[in-house]
Structures are given as structure tokens and as C-alpha cells.
Amino acid sequence: MDILFVTSNLHKLKEAQEILGDGFNLTIPSQMGITEDIPEDGQTLEQNAVFKAGYVHKANGMDCFADDTGLEAEALGGAPGVYSARYAGPECNSLDNMHKLLKELEGQKNRKARFRCIVALILENRTYTFEGILNGTILEQKTGYGGFGYDPVFLPDGYTKTLAELTPEEKNLISHRGIAMRKLSDFLKNHHQK
Ligand code: ITT
Questions:
Q1: Measured from the CB, is residue 174 less than 6 Å from ligand 1?
Q2: Phi then psi for 26, rounded to 5 degrees?
Q3: What total of structural domains would you count in the chain?
Q4: Given strand 64-73, what is the order of strands in its sheet?
Q5: What pLDDT sits at residue 186?
Q6: What is the CATH number of the domain that holds 187?
Q7: In this model, does residue 89 exceed pLDDT 90?
């Protein structure tokens, strides 16, 4: 099945393609010459995911899906959450964001956090959302070099390795994105059987 994944994040593309497998052939907007920045100013992950998919669907009418993901730290009232990509400021990178998170949690005993991924699908002019959650804790320092984003500081519950120390297969098996994308895959497979 060919489907458009509305993302500019190549790490997400790689993970999504590995999770969805060979039955899905993903294209991203930049491969179709769509390079404009899609605004992400919603108040929730759901709003942003639906907006990103809707933005491209309105422009070209194609069925598509988008992923909005946030890291929610309990002691910070769910921050950085919907602001995960720009936590340290608009021009900052993942390293800056992680350092800001570690600073905000300095001396904090409650290190509980979760990744939440919302996938929004627009199919035949209807919108569907799928959620994946991964619970864990934020370490006091970065560990590991794999994955992307906040992975080096996130220890999944029941594991002794951070997401950045797990293999891509191990991460995808338990991750927020793995859970949400497998829901998407099941939905699309059922839909196309009808
Ligand atoms: P899009 O083009 O898909 O919007 P993005 O990078 O802006 O890409 P988000 O708005 O969902 O994506 O931003 C969430 C941020 O959270 C992202 O920049 C990463 O740094 C981080 N993030 C997302 N998924 C992650 C994961 O699986 N592991 C670690 N960090 C992740």
C-alpha cells in the first residue's frame, strides 16, 4: 500500500517504515516537492497531528497520516509535552532540549515520564487518530547513542537500557510510535479488506 506520511523528521520516517513493514510504501512531502514548514501551534498532540495531516490533505487531496509526539514528565505537569520539539527555544536542537529537561528535573525525585504518540490518519475524507504510550523514567544523564530526540535520557519501565541503547527493533517493539503505528496498520489492513 502506498501512503503519504506527513513528516519532515527522517528518524520518524525510518522507524515508521520499519514498524509498518514491506506491505507499506511510505512517501514524505519533501519527496513530492512539498517543502513548506507546516505550522504546529496546536494546544495538544491530537490537534497538531490532525492539523499536519489535514494541511497536506487540503493542499493535494491525498490520503495521508501524521505523527505528533511529546515527552510528558510528571513532575513538570506534563511538560515538555506538545512543546517537545522546541522546549529549549525555536532554534534549538535535540541536545539543547535534553539538557533543558535535565536542568528542569535537577534535584527532582519524581522522574516519571511517558512518551505519547498520536497518529492522525485522513482516509477518504474522514479523520481517525491512534495513540501509543510508553511509560518510563528520565535518567540524570544521557546514556547511549541510538534512536533520536530524548531517547538517551529515557529509561522504559522494566528495562535497564535507555531507548538510545536498545536496538531499533527493540525500541520499535515497545515504543509509543510502535504501538500507535501498529494500530494504524491494523486499521488500514481491515479497511482495505472491506
Ligand atoms: P514532524 O515533521 O513529524 O512534525 P518533529 O520532529 O517536529 O517532526 P514532533 O513535533 O512530533 O516532530 O516533535 C516531537 C519532538 O519530540 C521531536 O523533535 C523529537 O525530538 C522528540 N521525539 C519524537 N519522537 C521521539 C522518540 O521516539 N524518541 C525520542 N524523542 C522523540
A1: no
A2: -90, 140
A3: 1
A4: 25-27, 2-6, 64-73, 112-123, 126-138, 154-156
A5: 97
A6: 3.90.950.10
A7: yes
Q: Which of 67, 32, 63, 74 is nearest to 49 (CA)?
A: 67
Report the pLDDT averaged over residues 78-85.
98
Biggest alpha carbon–alpha carbon distance for the chain: 54
pLDDT for 161: 98
Please give the pLDDT value at position 192.
Answer: 81
Residue 101: name the closest of 119, 117, 81 by CA.
81
φ, ψ at 148 (rounded to 5°): -160, 180
Best mutation site among 13, 17, 48, 69 for ligand 1, i.e. most ligand atoms within 8 A of its Cβ? 69
Residue whose CA is at the smallest distance from ligand 1 atom 7: 85
Whether 68 is a known active-site residue: answer yes
Mean pLDDT for the stretch of residues 55-78: 96
Closest atom of ligand 1 to 163 CA is 28
pTM above 0.90, yes or no: yes
185 Cβ closer than 6 Å to some ligand 1 atom: no
Which domain, by its residues, includes 17? 2-193
